[in-house]
Structures are given as structure tokens and as C-alpha cells.
What does this fold into?
Amino acid sequence: MANSILSKINPIWKLAPSTLIPLRTTTSKHFNPKYKKHRKMKYMRLDLPDMNEDDSKISPEKQRQKMKERGVMPPRPWMERPFYISATGGVFEGYVPPEGDGKASIVSTTRAKQTVELLEKKSKSMMAIRKIKSFDEDYDTKEFVQEAQRIYINAHESLANNDKYALRKYVTEKAYPEFRHNSHLKTIRWKFLDSLEPPRVVHARCTDIISKDNIFAQVTVRFHTRQQLAVYDRFGRLIHGSEIIAKDVLEYIVFEKHLSNLYGVWRIHDKIIPDWAPPKDPSKLTKVRPPPEPVVVQVEEEAVQPAIADK
It folds into this structure.
């Protein structure tokens, strides 16, 4: 029997070494021992932390040693988070419009009192404008009112076109939700016709927030214009204004700029509504038309008299 086994294995031993095919075995060794050292250096042994370890039972020195080994910074008792203030939360030292502005005549007593009050408040505005010029050397009041009117028109056109991204360029983060309030599912038609009076700066203030170097400026501009406004609901029905009738509009718009920011721009921040202004006309409320009620046809029953049999 031994001869038979040897006779069967004998042809295998006679094969050339080049014809032998390397086979994988159950061992973890690579079939090619070349670059064994380099393959070993590809892996790094790490001491994984014990997640079940109780840190309260370890001394502070030992905790500090472990944190230094892992390259972990010690925790702080406070949390510092950087934040950026691009706009203020309101109007500081807001302008108080004189009563009867835009209606009182030049020779009236009311108009004379307004002129005196304007001269008394003009000193602070001049100091604020001087502060603005210290940051922006090209600032000029006459050129600014033209730029303010352009921003005013572009902001309202962006709102009418429902362009949210363009509107953010012309209004601050405080004024954006006020512009967009109650405009969902509505169609707005707005048109600027002309100015009844040239726009003018009536108020200017500067203030600092958090630090003395972080300065914001607010300038109030008076607009007396003629506009057309029409608002339609989602069903296409007119709920406010008209596209034919033009109205005279007197507004006091507050523009704000972050002076400390090199790339700060003037944007609409708020609108001052005086106490003596007449209340606005309420908008018409529209509802979904209810389904028609079914028509009930009543049929009159004829009185049937029983026939009396002749006796």
C-alpha cells in the first residue's frame, strides 16, 4: 500500500518549483515575507480609554496626566461663543415728528413752533453727522438722501416681487420680519410716482454697543411722496388700496449703518409712526366661498277628496 501512495505523490515532487501555486492557509502570515517590517509599521497601537472608568475616584493629578497624554484641554467653567451684531434691536433716541407736519402752512403758529424745536435738536444731529464723517469721509447729506430714496424704492420693489434675497440687502435683520409680516399668499402691486417734497434728514444719532469701538449710526429721513398700492389675496380679490388711485404718503424712515464695519451699508431699520397720525383703514377680510346650499323643491300635494258612493 505504501508503494501505491508513493506512486501517486511521486509526480508532484517531480514538478518544477516555478509551477507551484501559492495557496492561502489559515495562518495570518503574508505569503510574501518581503517588506514585512514596513507592513508592521503601517499599524499603530493605541491605548483606548476605559469608558466604564469612574473619574470621581481618580485623583486630580492622575486626571491631569491622562488628559496630557490624550492631548485634551481642561474644561472651563464658562463657555465662550463668538457672536456678530449686524444691527441694533431698536431705535435709540427716536425722532418725534411735530404735530401737523405736511399739513400746517408756513405762516401758521404750529409751523413756527416746529421750526424752533428743530433748531434746538439740531445740535445733537450735527454732532452725530460729524461722527459719521469720521468713519466715512465721503458722506454727504445731500447725496445720502438720494441714496436713501433709492434704497427705499428698491426695498419696496423687492417686497412686491417677493424677492427675499434682494430684500435682505436693503433692510436690517430687525426690519425684515416687519416687512414680510402678513404678506404670505398675497399679491402686492406697488409703484413710486414722484416726490411732493425733496427728502431730507431730520434726525441723526450714533451709539456704541458692548465696546466703545463698536459704533452704529441711525439717520431718520423724511419722505413725502405719491404712491400707488394694491394688495390682493390668494383668490385674486382686492383687499387693500387701488392700482388707479394715488395717495400722498408722509413717512419717517430710519436708516442704520454699522460704522465700525468696513463693509457696512445703509439699510432700512425702522419706521416712525407719530401718535397724531390718523388710523389706517382696515383691510377687507376674505374667506373661502362656502359651497352652495342644495335647493329644496317643495311639491304641493293636491287634496284628494274621497269619492262618496251614491246610495
User: Anything to note?
Assistant: The beta strands are 187-208, 215-232, 238-258, 267-272.
